[in-house]
Amino acid sequence: MPEAISRRLFAKIGTGVSLGTAAVVYSDDTPTQKPGPTEAPFERDYEAPDFKPSWSNPQLNRQLVQDFVIYAHSDLEMTRKLLDKQPALVNAFMDWGGGDWESGLGGASHMGEREIVALLLDRGARIDIFCAAMLGQLEAVKALLSIQPRLIDSKGPHGFSLHFHAQVGGKDSEPVLDYLQTLKKIELRPNPFLKSAAEKTS
After folding, report:
1. Which fold, 7-14+60-193?
2. Nearest Cα to 186, choosing from 156, 155, 153?
């Protein structure tokens, strides 16, 4: 039987699959690279806004943003290295296609990577309800849901639910998961990104 897939390897595989990023495809034993992202065609069918951006500063490089968001899923040191290189990455988002927007914080949150989340928040990342659910911040989650109850059905990056984020937070976020279940009870499937007790203590 093949060796068990480690969480880190599973995360890398899952991230590549869910993101739809460029991947190597083998055909006749010859690796080929899938094409990169393309911008959807667009033509205004409405009046253009009066405000015209000056574009005095260049946008962050898309490849750099992509790499940062991928590393933020599981690699603390590379996340720190890229933040040191470009601090503005802390609130950068990548569109993986079809409006599947994800920041480094979003990736770290749905992977249950508390150390990476702590680094990003310390550098100024804007916390959201998904991150709060993973961290077990029950009062924050309650407050946001009282302001906007429909957030119970909101989806984070790749369609991961609030319940999923609370679940991946493990024991510390169990009160949040219990609370979410009182609002909307769903079937909780095994969470592939939930760290085992052995991993947490190693």
Report:
1. 1.25.40
2. 153
